[in-house]
Amino acid sequence: MGKPILKKIVLITGATSGIGKASAKIYAKNGYQLIITGRRKERLEELKNKLERKYGVNVHTLCFDVRNRKSVKKKIEGLPEKWKNINILLNNAGLAKGYASLDKGNIDDWETMINTNVLGLLYVTKAVSKIMIKNNGGHIINICSTAGHEVYPNGNVYCASKHAVDAITKSMRLDFYKHGLRISQVSPGHVEETEFAMVRFDGNKEKASIYKDFNPLTSKDVARTVYFISTQPSHVNIQDVLMMGTQQASSNFIDRSGRK
Q1: Out of 32, 158, 211, 227, which one is annotated catalytic?
Q2: Does 158 participate in catalysis according to the annotation?
Q3: Is 47 a member of any domain?
Q4: Could you give the number of structural domains in the chain?
Q5: CATH number for the domain including 141?
Q6: Taken in order 136, 144, 63, 24, is the CA torsion positive or negative?
Q7: For the chain, which terminus, N or C, has the lower number of CB atoms within 10 Å?
């Protein structure tokens, strides 16, 4: 038996893998109702069935690509009435695509990152924030990155997109505090148990093996932090958590002497 079902509803984008999936699990374990979104319908249904069976919570799935403005609007506005009072939004959907200097970068990769990490976050936030403002409360948590606080070679457009997330988060705080909304972000460094590296390197397993000689964060570590932020007293707003594994001091300073 899971914990008693709460009335609070959490919407998580990019819930089919990595940080989104780990966050869905920790919220379900603690009795929250979930709206999980992603592009892969089979994975969404599989996760829904697993969470409902294991934790006894209610889970609603929305299959859409955050880059598709019309789809985002249609799916969120078309939620059944009992699912519309969203209390927490976790803007998790995001990716890195490619790893090259600006002159050698792939423009399609640039557009994918900007459309997902920036525009996708904006589309979802616009739709959900309207609901929260109407309800005079809610909490929006954005998954940023250490790349939103610094830059590194070959990370140009990805870093730019995450700097945009940082700026958007700060702007949202100024836009929404008078409506009773809390705005936060988590900025993790390297995180394993995700598809980040495989997506960045187009499925090249050798290039994607970037965690083998040190201990990075795990998706569960980030999910626990997200949950901690959202469960603070209502008068507390944690603006940003910058987190890295102990062996990582910045994007360019990593102790790669082996897992400790």
Answers
A1: 158
A2: yes
A3: yes
A4: 1
A5: 3.40.50.720
A6: negative
A7: N
